[in-house]
Amino acid sequence: MKVAIEPSWQQRLQAEFEKPYFPKLTEFVRQEYATQRCYPPGKLIFNAFDKCPFDEVKVVILGQDPYHNEGQANGLSFSVNDGITKPPSLINIFKEIQDDLGKPIPKSGNLERWAVQGVLLLNATLTVRAHQAGSHQNKGWETFTDAAIKHISDEKEDVVFLLWGAYAQKKGAIIDDSKHLVLKSKHPSPMAAQWGGWFGNKHFSQTNAYLKSKGLPEIDW
After folding, report:
1. Which of 111, 124, 136 shows the shortest CA–CA distance to 30?
2. CA–CA separation, 74 vs 62, rounded Å?
3. Is the separation of the CB atoms in 160 and 210 below 8 Å?
4. How far apart are CA 66 and CA 73, in angstroms?
5. Torsion angles phi and psi, residue 87, rounded to 5
6. Who's near 101: CB < 8 A, 6+ residues apart?
7. Residue 93 contacts by C-beta under 8 Å, 6 or more apart in sequence?
8. DSSP class per residue in 78-125
9. What are the pLDDT digits (tens) for 145-194?
10. E strand or H helix at 162
11. How many whole angstroms separate alpha carbon 58 and alpha carbon 106?
12. How far is CA 80 from CA 10, 73, 142, in A?
């Protein structure tokens, strides 16, 4: 089965495309996009992989679902397109960067600028029906994205995994933390953040300190 995805990922994930679950997933997604409003746009479903080739991955940020409101999702976890109002979780991410690194909150919530530096912004589920969070969960996407995470864990070294919230931390069970840095905190969503454990996690400065210690370029957050 041929899927249009960045070549270095194509090579590693081709075995997933051949497994029985993937044609079923593809048919489900095709039907949903044909009969419902779904996000992100079809050409951006694999945007996280397309913008961050395997060999360039230095950091992984795991999300759960794409944003499900009009014009928000662009295939990168926590990211929105230029000109779109920043969702509350993204605002809290930028506030923590401001507190941690002293960087001003940017006008745009488009995180493509992170992706091209080697930050894989990966949602566990790559599609969603409009206004229905979780509507495409448990259809096969999680198996696919687990495979991607395992390839990174197994084949690379010194990658930083940022696991925010219980869902991401559970998905992180397949990461080998003996050769990667795994940082965990509460989720940046307002409800989780208000109970403490998000603000002050200093994940962004910790990430850069680790990368620097390994002789790798730091991320311009």
Report:
1. 136
2. 15
3. yes
4. 6
5. -65, 160
6. 204, 205, 221
7. 78, 188
8. T-B-TTSPPPHHHHHHHHHHHHHH-PPPPS---THHHHTTTEEEEESS
9. 999 999 999 999 999 999 999 999 999 899 999 999 999 999 999 987 77
10. strand 160-164
11. 22
12. 25, 6, 22
Torsion sign over Cα 142, 71, 58, 190? negative
Q: Considering the chain, what percentage of its residues have pLDDT values greater than 90?
A: 94
Contacts of 178-184 spanning 24+ positions with Cβ under 8 A: 180/153, 180/156, 181/206, 181/207, 181/210, 183/207
pLDDT tier, 64 (very low <50, low <70, confident <90, very high otherwise)? very high
Q: For helices 7-17 and 141-155, what crossing angle results, to 10°?
A: 130
Which residue from 210, 198, 213 is spatially nearest to 59, judged by alpha carbons? Answer: 210
Take residue 25 and report the two structure tokens written for it. 């997933």
The catalytic site residues sit at: 65
* pTM confidence score: 0.96
What DSSP character marks residue 6?
Answer: -
Burial class (CB in 10 A: 0-12, 13-18, 19+), 20: exposed
State CA 209 to chain mean position distance.
Answer: 21
Helix or strand (DSSP H, E) at 128: strand 128-129
